[in-house]
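Sample entry was shown:

___
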Amino acid sequence: LGGFADGAVLVHWLARSGAATYDYNIMARITKDGGRTWGEPFLVNTDGKKAEHGFVSFAATDKGMGVAWLDGRETKGMSHEGEHSPAGGGAMTLRFAEFLSDGTRARETRLDAKVCDCCQTAMVNTSKGLLAAYRDRSDAELRDISLVRPLAEKVEPREFSKDGWKINACPVNGPALASSGEAVTAVWFTMGGKARVRAAVSRDGGDTFSLPLDVDSAFPLGRVDVAALPSGESLLSWLGRGEGGSAEIKAAFIDPSGGLKPAFKVASTSTARASGFPRLERSGDEVVFAWTEVPPVAEGSTAPPLSRVRTAILSLK
């Protein structure tokens, strides 16, 4: 979901396009009256290929809404499982389009020709324009974080995290960004060297960043998020390790200069992939955390447990 400068709102969902497991398109609709009525559904990706399209991020632009996504139009013939080894297809790409609030596609471009196959993307509007973060993929299978300016006159991805994480598979663990004026905070997970959640801050709209800071190096699971706060601080969240192999949703404040405050526990959760990615959003003087609760399977039961969404609220006053 993304909001236009004129108050219109765009929502997206994934829609199956073929018989294969990862054949799906990105669909979207726009409302201009707070959700009372909606425009006709339209395709974000228009390549017409029965392939994977998803992991979408949004950010408002001066004219409309920027949308970035992973686009598999060149991957047909590749295996999505295990090592993602090529079998006649190309690589996953990162693409971008800008839409006006009437649904008009103002522009579209490919941002990166080879990226990690299924890690979340992130995008924010900064004082220097749009900035996107994503997990890249080199020919040597390094899966570190890169940055790119989608609306730059010359689109040039640049290496960012340089963690040296070499893995011949997709970790499904993308970065997060938050911005406010000149300030930008980036947070990400890596296993380059060891498992860590890391963060860095920028004071010039994302042109340069502080040295990476290890937020959690006690075998975290990642699944990060971040929000910019009115105080100038940012609030990070991630999935960390709890007692007895459990997982905890953790959070910590980081100031504009990169100073990290002690982490605190938000809630207990599951390490299972079904527990998803915890999210946080600022709403006025509060921060809302949301996550998926996956109950344990009852003894003797063969039915899958019923998941539900839980929330917690942190007051900033």
